[in-house]
Amino acid sequence: MRRKMIGTTIWALWCGAVCFAQSSTDELRQHADKAQEVFDGPGHLRDTANGPVLDRPPEYPGGQAALFAFLKEETIYPPEAMDRGIMGKVFVEFVVEKDGHVDSVRVKRGVHALLDAEAVRVVGSMKNWIPGMQAGEVVRSRYVLPISFVMQEKDVQRARKRAKRKG
User: What value does the mean pLDDT of the chain take?
Assistant: First the structure.
C-alpha cells in the first residue's frame, strides 16, 4: 500500500512539473547546460563522447512516461528511512553505453545513505536505453536522473510518533 502511495506521489509530482515547465527547446538546453555546470563544475565534459550537446540524447524505451512508470513500480521506500521521516530528491548519474546498457551508476547529489542506496539500486536495474547520437554516430553519454522520495503527511506523523516511542 505504501509503495502505491509513494508511486502515486512521484507520478503526481512529475505530472505537475511537466504542466508548469513548458519552455522552448533552446531555452531548455540553456537551462540544462547551466544546471549541469552546477553538478560538474565549469569546463567538465558532460558527455563521454566529447560533445557538449547531443543531437539525440539517450532515451528510456517508451519515453519518459515509461521511465516514470518503471521508477514508480520498482522503487521501494526503505522502511528505516520511512520510520525516521527521511525524504528528499536523490540525483543519480550514470552512463548510457553505445549498446544502451546502464553503467557507472553513482549518486551525484544525495539525501541520506538509505535513500541514496535505493536510488542507485533502481537505476542499476534498468533495462537497456536507446543510446544518444552525435553527428549520426551512436555515443556514450552521461545522464542525471532525479529520484524523489516523498511521504504523505500521515506517514510523516506516524514516523514522528514511532521516533518518540523509541527515543
Answer: 78
